[in-house]
Predict the structure.
Amino acid sequence: MGFFSFRFGEIMLMVEVKNLTKYFGNKKVLNNISFEVYKGEVFAFLGHNGAGKTTTLRILAGIIKDYDGIVNIYGTVGYLPEERGLYKEETVKSILKFFCELAEVSFDEILHWIDRLNLNKYLDYKIKELSKGNQQKVQIIISLIKNPDIVILDEPFSGLDVVNVRVLLDIINELKKDKSIIISSHRLEHVEKVCDRVAILKEGNIVYYGKLKFREKVYIEILDNGKILKKEVNKNEAINILREMPEKVVKYEVKYSLEDIFLELI
């Protein structure tokens, strides 16, 4: 793995994966996949259960080291695993202090995250006494302790209520200003709000890779001289129609969502 970012014009490459293949025994779980992640973007890595998402993220995080292909990571990594690995008999404060010591970071440096995620009143609670959502927030802070260049979030919305989902989405949007964010989640309605590009994995193969252009397609029905005209237009055309003749619009809906394209491919 590399540890220096590469610039292409004004674009900074942070993660480079080429022809990545991984076997567990005789089973091939990743089949020659390639993708890149850049600074300043949220990259969604999606797929059905068993598609190879978590395996890929563990390779990027340096947990799995036995694979074929090229993986270059140009910066430090913070990793939020899907599974909760907290010591349940320890308090929130002792857990966070422990990880701060491992990262050689002062506890004071993460107080803003504790406050942002509303964990101040739970610092003296044992992990086992917390709700699933608050346990998840502790793990989110741990993934950010060392102010990493690349943040990998595996099912980050797990256990979070509506309010805390919004807080996390806001945090992700703020972090991406000077970091790379990689998200894997089944909560596609949340992912779609923040991601810039997406790779969809099916049985170890990437079946979609690129920007979310399909989000801009709009289906619209217009009443014209007693007849209904049905159109599929881009977002800007739809906005113009709504501005110029709102009284004639019978139906207006986004034709494709991230969930639609995911189901189409999977």
